[in-house]
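RECORD TYPE: inverse folding
INPUT: structure tokens
STRUCTURE:
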């Protein structure tokens, strides 16, 4: 008899929830998906599932509920076999993976959201400065691993990649639309991000992302509340 599917509580505009969805897809974990509206529309019943009110959360067949995106992703990786492991087995490489995730989180999450939410145009440059420094750091770390990639550990796709991809995937659409800011540019406008662009392109081509993402216009629509009264940039 087939085991009961894991209940997954998420929202597809959320990059944190997307981390866990991508991981589940990579590991072929069957899910019973439950959409959770965000912000003021978040239903009261969800706080009985997750008192923090954040997504994602999963409820296992045992009844235990797990919270926080990377903890859920790690659970999927560790609980569903060693085949297609999403963390390097070498301890030093595993450290590099965790450090990559931490560098992204400490350098980029705040200014990415900050630029999108900013209502004072003359302060955009402050956020952009921090974003570009963070992107340059990610490019540096990718190059430091050597080889041709495309991922942090060459052909091996890991939780280090999965932790970052959903954010750059969304913000390259939303920041262009709402702040007229080209996040990654091209070889002419941002030659120093060539390795990062190749990395993101390879990740975005994986079935685990294409099967779990939204269309660009859905991200733009979903992030209207974040952009606030400034609305879409004039083109």
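DESIGNED SEQUENCE:
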């Amino acid at each position: 008899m087939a085991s009961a599917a894991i209940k997954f509580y998420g929202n597809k505009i959320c990059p944190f929830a997307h981390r866990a969805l991508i991981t589940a897809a990579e590991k072929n974990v069957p899910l019973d998906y439950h959409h959770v509206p965000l912000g003021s529309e978040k239903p009261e019943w969800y706080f009985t599932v997750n008192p923090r009110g954040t997504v994602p959360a999963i409820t296992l067949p045992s009844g235990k509920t797990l919270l926080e995106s990377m903890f859920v992703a790690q659970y999927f990786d560790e609980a569903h076999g060693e085949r297609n492991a999403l963390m390097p087995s070498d301890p030093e490489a595993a450290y590099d993976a965790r450090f990559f995730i931490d560098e992204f989180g400490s350098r980029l999450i705040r200014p990415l959201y900050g630029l999108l939410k900013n209502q004072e145009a003359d302060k955009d440059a402050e956020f952009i400065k921090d974003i570009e420094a963070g992107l340059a750091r990610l490019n540096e770390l990718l190059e430091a691993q050597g080889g041709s990639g495309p991922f942090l550990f060459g052909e091996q796709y890991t939780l280090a990649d999965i932790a970052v991809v959903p954010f750059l995937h969304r913000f390259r659409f939303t920041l262009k639309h709402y702040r007229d800011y080209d996040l990654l540019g091209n070889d002419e406008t941002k030659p120093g991000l060539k390795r990062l662009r190749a990395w993101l392109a390879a990740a975005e081509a994986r079935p685990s992302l294409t099967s779990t993402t939204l269309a660009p216009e859905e991200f733009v629509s979903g992030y209207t509340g974040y952009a606030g009264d400034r609305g879409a940039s004039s083109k």
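NOTES: The mean pLDDT is 95.
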